[in-house]
Amino acid sequence: MNAGSAAVRPVGGGADGSRGPLGGLLVADFSRVLAGPYATMLLADLGADVVKVEGPQGDDTRGWMPPARGDVSTYYLGINRGKRSIALDFRDAADARLARELARRADVVIENFRPGGLARYGLDHPTVSAGNPGVVYASITGFGSGPGRHVPGYDLMVQAVSGLMSLTGDPEGPPYRAGISVFDVMAGNHAAIGILAALRHRDATGQGQLVEVNLLSSALTGLVNHSSGYVAGGSVPYRMGNAHPSVFPYEPLPAADRELIVTAANDGQFRRLCEVLGIPGVADDTRFRHNSDRTERREELRPLLVERLRTRTALEWFDLLVEAGVPCGPVNTIDGGFALAERFGLDPVVEVGEGDRAVPTTRHPIRFSETPAAYRLPPPELDEHGTELREWLEDGPDCPPYGTPEDSDD
User: Could you tell me the domains of the chain?
Assistant: First the structure.
């Protein structure tokens, strides 16, 4: 625990900082929308005491609907469990003072304002760390704190400028965005990893630090083999639809009722695929013996596979091929994905809260043998815990005043 957070902890609402691998950590969450809130939800699941600081109008995602559960956006519900909410207007001197006091006591501060946007309120890293030298301060931006600091960061923009959209869609069609804000989620994960690494360093040295994550860097590392193909081989990849540039079969192929992803990434898997399909001779054909041969002659091989796959349904082939050790899977809608997770005993849905506050949410993705994730609080209503948090922040030494708040469009 940071010395700045000291002995007094917020109480009420069911939070229990003593439980979970991150029990005892206080996280001041000044982030909005997706990347930051996703990171702090992961930390809250693992026991961190997360205080979600919202403006008077609340997090933007509260109104991002449909879909909704009652009058609350399911977007907001999906990334904000385990937290307590306090509404603070940084342009108000008293509220800004409480925000600085929260940052002074926190072990972790996380924000995704535009670079420099919090400096006028004394909530930037240099000011916060001066009064709280052990703090881990995580900043998420679109394009970093250097020359790209002035560019607003939105996932769709980053999908475009990073090159991802150039890889997504039919070869002869327009580029497409991914179906989710993939780089916001990736940056949220990177922020959580960075925070945990910095906490490990603090445990060893007592020293906090600044952790910076930006969407573009997360995107470029997330493009993995395509990034490596360019930086190490000078290759600029192109749009191939659902095909893989280096492996075949590794794409959806039509079964009797719908498409089935078939992945035969090595020669042994391809041989087993051919045996289950009843065409073992194809695996011995010199045209298709090795992956490089199959990839080069994919247009010759595809019809041979499709002819057999069309004789059964996707689920029938799924059971047969998986049993034989061939990776595959039907192209589901999201309900099918949850159904498959249930079938495999992954228990993908957890209910948080009680009575009319109970909210079904998606289970934390990591399983621990000794310190499992826990789901203590439902996603908070705006300023739901404001009274208790204000009382706690006003109790004890005040943080020093900082300047005069100015109007801000951040």
Answer: 26-222+350-394 (3.40.50.10540), 259-330 (3.30.1540.10)
Catalytic residues: 184
Q: What one-character DSSP code corresponds to residue 358?
A: -
Amino acid 2: pLDDT = 55
The sign one gets for the Cα dihedral 349, 78, 180, 62 is: positive
Cα dist. 148→57, 215, 216, 278, 353 in Å?
28, 11, 10, 56, 42
DSSP 8-state class, residue 164: G
Q: Rounded to whole angstroms, how far apart are CA atoms 141 and 154?
A: 9
Q: Dihedral through CA 188, CA 193, CA 197, CA 198, nearest 10?
A: 0
Q: Is 142 exposed, middle or buried (CB count within 10 Å of its CB: 0-12, 13-18, 19+)?
A: buried
Output the pTM of the full model: 0.88
- For residue 9, the tally of other CB atoms under 10 A from its CB is 15
The pLDDT of residue 396 is 63
Residues of the chain with pLDDT under 70: 1-18, 396-410
Written as one string, the DSSP assignment of 42-68 is: HHHHTT-EEEEEE-TT--GGGG--SSE
Q: Alpha-carbon distance 378 to 239, whole Å?
A: 42
- pLDDT for position 13: 33
